[in-house]
Automatic annotation (TrEMBL), chain A:
The chain crosses the membrane at residues 6-33, 71-88, 100-118, 130-149, 155-180, 201-221, 250-275, 287-304, 316-337. It is found in: Cell membrane. This is Iron ABC transporter. Its main location: membrane.
Length: 348, 286
């Protein structure tokens, strides 16, 4: 296990760094890689003084105020959604589960859409109003779903999924209704439900960071129990896993993580579903490996999707949720195909 | 080892088990037998602590079963289920390592090094060469051996088997039971097993507990319990009891009851047959 994690982890980190440097250069103003490296190193304490600034001040402005916060936010959102997805698939033991299965995206979307509909985006907490409300309504939805699904102190999986689906369609209908009823602001609600990382700045990155760190540590610490759970619920109980406590706590943490991500970026589908499966197809079913690699994979995947979203049709931005599905679905199909072929070859 | 007093379980107003009193001593091997729906599996779930009783209580090693934490309980009791292990992508070695889960601290470490134990069990269960194979690549018999291995790694003092041989052919059934018997002889564990096969139960168990309609219908040695009159009453079949020529255990022989076929098969009216054929043709057309 540890060898596998070290190998893939090192490769993932290198890829992440490469992604960072290359994507920082892409945009309306091209920045050469060497200049990016120098500008970043210049900011580091210790070695920073040895580098003489020989770049334009505007380049540094673009890098530090626009691109870097956006890319780091993308990494955090992608990593959060991906590990939340891995956790959902592990606990619900259902390959179709994703961070939004329990209706958190619709809950968050309802909060955001209501604010936009009534023009209250900046009403009481300034720029933080929308993420705060979206987070609260997303978390509130989780609470209702858990309440609906709970049966004699237990959390049956089919009950959870059904309650989540019901909440999702109901709240989704309300959001659609609001979208249609608002005349001038249609695009704004619509765009929020399709996700975007533009114009977010450092403050949003700072909001999400502690959530990601806490969520990551917790979910990784439960990965051994999730492995045992994959042998079957009753089996896991006999082996010393407190199944209902594990399910409840992991679902709550994963949902809060997803709600936090959604509250800053809008609804971005597909990442939480596809990234953990990609990691699974490459490395196997050990959650001790899947959780950290999903974080890396989600971060890399999201940054490339966002880079495509902001540069392909520049100056127009494609909604991020559209790009994640465009890139994710064919790549996932390829991995499935490759896996099937490899298994067939192994048999012959 | 384990004692039940006034044990009962009901789902809503439907009682599944009622008024069970039993005491299972250390090192004994008990077999639980009884017809379908008599409450065998429910009794196992109550004794293993995954379900809590609606009446009465269970004490394990002098302590109320419900007062044990999940991990503490798993260090004493191991359970092997009928369906065995789900075919997952984990390798045999990874699954065996999971057996140590109850002994891990919050950092995922254990004081003792479990590696020699796992190696010894791999050898004992003849899993050499399969360590790195995934569960999905194993046959049912091999998978059941891995399931047994995982439970041995758990080092319990009470082993509960819930119809462990259901999906195995006769060779693997016997091999499995022999392995459990050897384990018991070397380590003195207590075994409680639900078995459908009365003949295997008679050869391996010290005591048999007969369940009928959620109540204890009898407890005794195989010789006391497996009598023609008793089996006729509980299972509603007509058995012949013989003695095993090698070990003297009572063996139950069943004879197909020809009486119910007397008079041949029900008469089929030719008209009906025509209709049935037309039905068949229509399916072919589609």
């Amino acid at each position: 296990m540890s060898k596998k994690l070290a190998g893939f982890g090192a490769a993932g980190l290198i890829l992440l760094l490469l992604t960072l440097v290359v994507s920082l250069g892409i945009g309306s103003v091209h920045l050469p890689v060497r200049e990016i490296g120098a500008m970043l190193l210049h900011r580091l304490p210790g070695i920073g003084d040895s580098i003489v600034p020989n770049w334009e001040a505007s380049s540094e402005q673009i890098l530090m105020k626009v691109r870097l916060p956006r890319i780091l936010l993308g990494m955090l959102v992608g990593a959060s959604l991906a590990i939340a997805g891995a956790a959902f698939q592990g606990v619900l033991r259902n390959p179709l589960a994703d961070p939004f299965t329990l209706g958190v995206s619709s809950g968050a979307a309802l909060g955001a859409a209501s604010l936009i509909f009534y023009g209250m985006e900046y009403s009481f907490a300034g720029g933080y109003t929308l993420p705060l409300v979206a987070f609260l309504t997303g978390a509130g939805t989780l609470w209702v779903v858990l309440l609906l699904a709970r049966d004699q102190g237990k959390l049956p999986i089919h009950g959870l999924i059904l309650s989540g689906v019901v909440m999702q369609s109901f709240l989704g209908a309300v959001v659609s209704f609001l979208t249609v009823m608002s005349k001038d602001t249609v695009n704004q609600i619509l765009y929020w439900t399709m996700g975007s990382l533009s114009m977010r700045g450092w403050s949003y990155t700072a909001i999400l960071f502690p959530y990601f760190i806490a969520g990551f540590i917790y979910l990784w610490s439960r990965s051994r129990a999730l492995n045992i759970l994959s042998l079957g619920e009753r089996q896991a109980a006999h082996m010393g896993v407190n199944v209902d406590r594990l399910k409840t706590s992991v679902l709550i943490v994963a949902t809060l993580l997803a709600a936090a991500a959604v509250s800053v970026s809008g609804v971005i589908g597909f990442v939480g579903l596809v990234v953990p499966h990609m990691i699974r197809l490459i490395t196997g079913s050990d959650y001790r490996v899947i959780v950290p690699l999903s974080a890396l994979g989600g971060a890399i995947f999201m940054v490339w999707c966002d880079t495509a979203a902001r540069s392909v049709l520049a100056p127009m931005e494609i909604p991020l949720g559209v790009v994640t599905a465009f890139i994710g679905a064919p790549f996932f199909a390829y991995l499935l195909y490759r896996n099937k072929k490899r298994r067939r070859e192994a048999l012959t | 080892m384990i004692t039940a007093r006034g044990l009962g379980k009901a789902y809503g107003k439907m009682p599944i088990l009622a008024g069970m009193d039993l005491h299972i001593g250390e090192g004994e091997w008990w077999g639980i037998i009884g017809p379908n729906g008599s409450g065998k599996s429910t009794l196992m779930q109550l004794l293993s602590g995954v379900e809590s009783p609606t009446e009465g209580n269970v004490t394990l090693l002098g302590r109320e079963l419900g007062s044990y934490g999940r991990k503490a309980l798993a260090r004493i009791v191991a359970v092997l289920q009928q369906e065995g292990l789900e075919p997952t992508d984990f390798t045999v070695r990874e699954v065996l390592e999971m057996g140590r889960f109850p002994f891990l601290n919050w950092l995922g470490r254990e004081e003792k090094d479990a590696e020699p134990l796992i190696e010894a069990i791999i050898k004992k269960l003849d899993l050499n060469g399969l360590e790195e194979r995934r569960l999905t690549e194993l046959s049912g018999g091999q998978r059941q051996r891995v399931a047994l291995g995982k439970i041995m790694v758990q080092e319990p003092s009470l082993l509960m088997l819930d119809e462990p041989t259901t999906y195995l052919d006769i060779r693997y059934q016997l091999q499995f039971m022999d392995m459990v018997a050897e384990w018991r002889n070397t380590s003195g564990i207590t075994v409680i097993s639900v078995l459908h096969d009365l003949n295997l139960a008679a050869q391996f168990c010290d005591k048999l507990l007969v369940l009928d309609q959620g109540k204890i219908a009898g407890i005794g040695t195989p010789e006391e319990v497996l009598t023609a009159a008793y089996i006729r009453r509980i299972f509603r079949v007509e058995p012949a009891i013989v003695t095993h020529p090698e070990n003297g255990a009572p063996q139950v022989l069943l004879t197909a009851n020809r009486a119910s076929y007397a008079g041949g098969l029900p008469h089929i009216d030719p008209g009906c047959k025509m209709e049935a054929e037309e039905e068949g043709d229509r399916f072919i057309d589609q």
